[in-house]
Specification:
heterotrimer, A mainly alpha, B mainly alpha, C alpha/beta, B: mainly alpha, two-stranded antiparallel ribbon, 12 helices, 72% helix, globular, C: alpha/beta, Rossmann fold, six-stranded mixed beta sheet, 25% strand
Chain lengths: 342, 289, 250
């Protein structure tokens, strides 16, 4: 029968790469050459983008809200720092995976506390866990260096080949490659039956269970995966800045992260990346206006976004591209259903 | 024995202060189902108003306290009418984002106006030092806090139980939709309660500057404490948050004295455990929803 | 007679209010059984108890002889107990293909696959195509569910329950709200359900009940009032009293 091949082709078509996506990554790669004097800010955008991608996986796809995602970022950051300082894992890429796994373990354990509650108690519990970890890091200052942070972090060359340079070129390329690889994995996840089941759970958990989806198990899994991503982001932060101090756990970091994702929009993977670029640029502009008080403007942006309404904001911004897309879409010949298979 | 008494005394003072600071938040959460992370900003505003009046204009401390209440209540009223009321029906995430934005703005504004260092309020001499109670020295200032906050709590309870406004308020907390049907002017009740809660926070901020400290980061530093009071106490009554605040105050003071190494660790853990165990708070009713 | 689904002494209270009282049902394998009762009789609670949304205060539930009383919702589905929903609870922004794809993936044990895209497995695709074809949804399979005509949405509802290959199927008012013109498709779909699937129909519409069911249970105030063949039930004076004015004349 032919219809099952059409079914397969149509299902796969949904996850095909679009022009916009290819262009996005080409521009990202080109930035290595184009903005060679801005590597530091680009690096920040890369790990912040990864961090926001991590939040998007739980918030945008599974509907879990978090006011304490910095917990996993912080664990990743300290793990990477400690691995380097004590020479346990010298190679950065390997240490990155180890740091991600450490955060993932925490994510797995805490997921059981987080996924049970309604939105409000999720916010409180995640906030509480992040504060708890910060307090722990503070108390065990003989391990973490307390308020001063870890001292003497030296990062070896990536894969033993590429040493981190003063201009941050290696650091940026390293972050970008990690971001791209993990983005590809995330993309695969959200288009898989697993990812689809998360969307079903977000929209109506009871209905999802009635289809046969093990709701809690899926939520635990995505929470742990998200924690892994956040941990890697934290590790990238530590590896590229040689810093790990208490503020990796700070409330402001979790709050800023929400803003990043809100700016870019949740639930389509690119929101976190676009949001990270815009947020970092905004932060730059704001601190050039009022060096000490840039946070005022960040706060104002948050307030305005909520007052205008997130939905309305995206509709406003996407109006023009959608119109263009609709016009172009009509002009193109309809793709044949059999084309996307194999 | 003496230390135990001192710890208990300081803990009760601290707890009562926390209650006055946080009970406005409990009401906003219970009544409007609104997560106001910016609640501490109103407390901070009260603290600074009091500091400016006392330190710069030489207003007597006890006259500055009501002024702090009124100033914060006024700010609360304006904020409720202009901003908050548009957000009652939004998702908790939107409310949280919005109020975090307000906190960030409040922190920087306070920093801009008052500087980033600690502000101290000149306390009248009559409130300094200790007095002897049954052979134990107790701080006069903390004694005053217990007296003022105790009276306030009693007054609150009386207002809630005995007045028409109180019964309307309780009806509105029980079921905001039904309250509208009973001819209760819900927006009016909301606005008034919000302003009153903000005013209490402002008063708490003014009273607490001596104990808790007062700097631009106040709203962030104490946010979690207010949330603990509300989440542990439950948002459906005021006795719940009151007991929770006392427990928290005593536990915090005792913890810092006996196990300084653990710090706030214990308190956060307890909060998380209670949130998991009893999502409606330790003293809250188990809502039949 | 082998029993597909059985309850023994099921009890459920909400805040002191008894909504299910000592309910014992036996539904024979392959039966076309209908559960009827006036509004507020507790039919919805029974569905929620059977599917695992609610836990009973007392009593047991057995699926093909095995106790499932404390199994979670999704585990009962995988054991072969599936249901449809009365009011529209479909995923508005997913397509019929994706919606059915979810159910088929779970049934075949590939629902947790995160490393391959939906559409990459031939066995899953084949079954999706089968279900969509059977329920006349192939032509709209790539449209957002929200844009489908209501009748098609009801068909998708049934298709989704069937995609889990249930051995016992609970149909919760399958034709509720469907316009007359599209009603035929639904009735045909219900009538065309495989004979080896045991069906428990929860329904208001007496025409549908009497044309479909070979056995009826009447629920009143949470308790079983009468059970029997359609003729027996229709003749029973107690049932007539309950349904007085509701036109029970089949």
């Amino acid at each position: 029968m032919n219809s099952d091949r059409i079914v397969g082709a149509l299902a796969l078509k949904r996850s095909r790469w679009g022009w916009g996506e290819t262009a996005f990554w080409l521009v990202a790669a080109a930035s290595i050459l184009l903005f060679s004097d801005r590597y530091l800010i680009l690096t920040e955008m890369a790990w912040l983008g990864l961090f926001a991608l991590s939040l998007d996986l739980i918030l945008g796809y599974a509907g879990i809200v978090s006011l304490g995602h910095a917990a996993f970022f912080g664990v990743g950051a300290y793990a990477a720092g400690l691995l380097a300082v004590h020479g346990i894992v010298r190679e950065p890429a390997l240490a990155l995976v180890a740091a991600g796994l450490a955060a993932m373990a925490l994510g797995f354990v805490t997921s059981f506390l987080v996924i049970r509650g309604a939105e409000l108690s999720q916010l409180m519990v995640t906030l509480g866990i992040a504060l708890l970890l910060r307090e722990l890091a503070n108390r065990f200052s003989d391990i973490t260096g307390g308020f001063d942070g870890l001292q003497g972090i030296v990062i070896d060359p990536v894969l033993g080949l590429f040493a981190f340079d003063l201009y941050g070129r290696t650091g940026f390329i390293y972050c970008l490659v990690v971001l791209f690889v993990l983005f590809l994995v995330a993309r695969m996840i959200v288009h898989s039956p697993f990812g689809l089941s998360l969307r079903a759970i977000r929209n109506n958990p009871l209905r999802a269970a009635a289809i046969g989806i093990p709701v809690n198990r899926r939520l635990v899994a995505i929470y742990a995966i998200s924690a892994f991503y956040a941990g890697v982001a934290g590790a990238l932060f530590t590896q590229t800045t040689a810093l790990a101090s208490l503020d990796v756990f700070s409330f402001e970091r979790s709050a800023d992260l929400l803003l990043v994702l809100v700016i870019g929009g949740a639930g389509y993977l690119y929101g976190g990346l676009v949001g990270a670029v815009i947020f970092r640029l905004l932060q730059d502009v704001f601190s050039s206006w009022t060096p000490q008080f840039w946070q005022f403007w960040i706060g104002l942006v948050l307030v305005l976004i909520v007052l205008v309404g997130r939905e309305r904001m995206y509709r406003g911004i996407l109006w023009l591209p959608r119109q263009l897309g609709a016009r172009l879409g009509k002009a193109k010949p309809a793709p044949s259903p059999g084309g996307g298979g194999a | 024995m003496t230390t135990l008494f001192t710890i208990l005394f300081d803990g009760v003072a601290y707890g009562m202060l926390l209650f006055v600071l946080a009970c406005g938040l409990a009401v906003t959460l219970g009544l409007m189902n609104f997560v106001n992370l910016a609640h501490g900003a109103f407390a901070m505003a009260g603290g600074y108003v009091c500091a400016v009046l006392v330190n710069r204009s030489g207003v007597p401390f006890f006259a500055a306290l009501p002024a702090a209440f009124l100033a914060s209540a006024a700010i609360g009223l304006v904020a409720e009418r202009l901003l908050y009321r548009h957000l009652y029906r939004r998702s908790p995430l939107d409310q949280v984002l919005f109020t975090i934005g307000l906190v960030f703005m409040a922190v920087t504004v306070a920093d801009y106006l008052m500087g980033s260092s600690q502000t101290f309020i000149h306390i009248p001499d009559s409130l300094q030092g200790q007095i002897n109670v049954f052979g134990v020295g107790v701080g006069r200032y903390r004694l005053m806090i217990i007296v003022i906050c105790g009276l306030l709590t009693l007054a609150l309870q009386l207002i809630l139980m005995k007045t028409r406004f109180g019964s309307r308020l309780r009806a509105a907390v029980d079921d905001p939709r039904a309250a509208g049907g009973l001819g209760i002017n819900v927006p009016y009740v909301f606005a008034l309660t919000f302003a009153f809660g903000s005013g209490l926070a402002g008063l708490g901020g003014a009273l607490g500057a001596e104990i808790l400290g007062l700097d631009p980061y106040f709203p962030l530093k104490f946010m979690i404490y207010f949330l603990i009071v509300v989440t542990v106490g439950g948002a459906s009554t005021i006795t719940g948050p009151f007991l929770a605040a006392l427990l928290l105050g005593i536990a915090d003071v005792a913890g810092k004295y006996y196990v300084p190494k653990l710090g706030a660790f214990v308190i956060y853990t307890v909060m998380i455990v209670i949130l998991i165990w009893k999502p409606h708070g330790l003293f809250g009713r188990t809502a039949a929803r | 007679m082998s029993v597909a689904l059985e309850t023994r002494g099921l009890e459920k209270q909400f805040g002191g209010l008894e909504v299910t009282r000592d309910l014992s049902l036996r539904i024979a394998t392959g039966a076309r059984h209908a559960l009827i009762g006036p509004n507020g009789a507790g039919k919805t609670t029974v569905i929620n108890l059977l599917t695992g949304v609610l836990r009973p205060d007392a009593g047991t539930i057995l699926l093909e002889g095995a106790e499932i009383t404390s199994l979670p919702v999704h585990a009962r589905v995988l054991r072969g107990l599936s249901r449809t929903f009365q009011i529209n609870q479909l995923y508005a922004d997913l397509t019929p293909l994706e919606t059915v794809g979810l159910a088929v993936s779970e049934r075949l044990g590939h629902g947790g696959d995160w490393w391959r895209r939906l559409g990459a497995r031939a066995d899953v695709n084949r079954e999706i195509a089968e279900v969509l074809t059977r329920f006349h949804l192939l032509d709209v399979m790539n449209d957002a569910t929200a844009t489908l005509p209501y009748g098609k949405q009801r068909l998708l509802e049934i298709a989704l329950a069937i995609a889990a290959r249930p051995r016992v199927l609970l149909l919760d008012e399958p034709a509720a709200g469907v316009p007359e013109s599209e009603r035929h498709d639904i009735l045909a779909a219900v009538a065309g359900l495989p004979r080896d699937v045991t069906v428990l129909l929860i329904e208001h519409d007496m025409d549908l009940v009497f044309s479909f069911a070979d056995r009826l249970s009447v629920l009143v105030n949470g308790a079983l009032l009468v059970e029997g063949t359609p003729d027996e039930v229709a003749r029973d004076p107690r049932v007539r009293a309950v349904y007085l004015g509701e036109g029970l004349d089949a």
